[in-house]
Write a structure and sequence with these properties.
The protein is built from one helix and 13 strands. It has 163 residues and is mainly β. The chain has one domain: Jelly Rolls (Sandwich). The strands form two sheets. Strands 1, 2, 5, 8, 9, 11 and 13 form a seven-stranded antiparallel β-sheet that branches.
Length: 163
């Protein structure tokens, strides 16, 4: 059976951080609009050179410039692989509004699944972002991307980085 889904025509992948960045000092990721998305995923890859229980926290905002930011009020599904060198298995975690990786020296994947309807849309919150805690470790790195399942498919998907 052949799939008719095209990654490039059905999903928008947006960099939330400028490539791998240090978690020393913490980071605030860019925001994306979910107005044209059925679903969104925050996909983070941690490269821990020094063990630290670094946290990642999805945020919602009223604009892609980070206006009126607040935490999610609804727990969302989370998957994690705390050692991608040993396995490719993503393990379902308890749904929550935050996740802290284990304090060890490994490369990890963490994925949050966000239904745009779970944001505070009634008050104009239709943008998604995230923050990453300060690890106080200059050699601990993270790369974050948003994967957006778009409402409309095609060769030219609507932008998610403008309101």
């Amino acid at each position: 059976m052949t799939s008719t889904t095209s990654l490039a025509q059905n999903y928008k992948i947006v960099a939330a951080s400028a490539g791998p960045v240090t978690t020393n000092g913490g980071i605030t990721c860019d925001y994306v609009s979910l107005k044209n998305a059925h679903k969104a995923w925050i996909v983070a890859t941690f490269d821990q050179a020094v063990g630290h229980a670094t946290g990642i926290d999805p945020q919602q905002a009223t604009a892609v410039d980070g206006t009126a930011v607040k935490v999610l009020s609804t727990a969302v599904p989370i998957w994690a692989n705390e050692d991608v060198g040993a396995s490719d298995a993503l393990v379902a975690q308890t749904s929550a509004t935050t996740y802290n990786v284990s304090a060890d020296i490994k490369v990890k994947h963490v994925i949050f699944e966000i239904d745009p309807a779970s944001l505070d849309n009634n008050n104009g919150f239709d943008c998604l972002g995230c923050t990453v805690d300060d690890s106080s470790q200059a050699t601990n790195l993270i790369s974050v991307n948003y994967w957006l399942e778009m409402r409309y498919e095609g060769a030219s998907l609507p932008s998610a980085i403008i309101d």
